[in-house]
User: Which sequence fits this backbone?
């Protein structure tokens, strides 16, 4: 069985347009992103070379760029797109992504959606 390790990014706070109400469509709002990418980190550990690693800085920059430019009605769509970005790196086998909207519901600290996707969930054979 293949050994998989976890690469985690915690509490990435960004602003974007996401929602169905008029105010949500007009004003950017905070979203809190957490993710776990499963990959075999042993090649990078052995070589100590970034070329052998999932470059989480690059992945994070891609997520930031996408989220800050996004204009989705549903958090479900946003979280799916973030998973796709993470899985572009062939070394990432599986990803869990959580997106929360702080203050979206009265009396709740936040509301959010968490998904887990694999490369086969996201990409067809022609796309990989």
Assistant:
């Amino acid at each position: 069985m293949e050994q998989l390790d976890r690469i985690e990014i915690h509490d990435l706070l960004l602003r974007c347009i996401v929602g169905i109400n008029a105010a949500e469509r007009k004003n950017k709002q905070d979203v809190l992103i957490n993710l776990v990418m499963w990959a075999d980190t042993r090649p990078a550990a052995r070589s100590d070379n970034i070329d052998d690693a999932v470059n989480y800085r690059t992945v994070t920059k891609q997520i930031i760029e996408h989220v800050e430019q996004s204009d989705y009605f549903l958090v479900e769509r946003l979280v799916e797109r973030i998973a796709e970005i993470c899985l572009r790196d062939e070394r990432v086998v599986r990803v869990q992504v959580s997106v929360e909207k702080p203050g979206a519901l009265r009396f709740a600290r936040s509301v959010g959606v968490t998904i887990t996707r694999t490369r086969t969930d996201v990409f067809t054979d022609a796309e990989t």
Q: What stands out?
A: The domain at 5-122 is CATH 3.30.1130.10 (GTP Cyclohydrolase I, domain 2). The chain has one domain: 5-122. The longest helix spans residues 56-69. The chain has a mean pLDDT of 92.
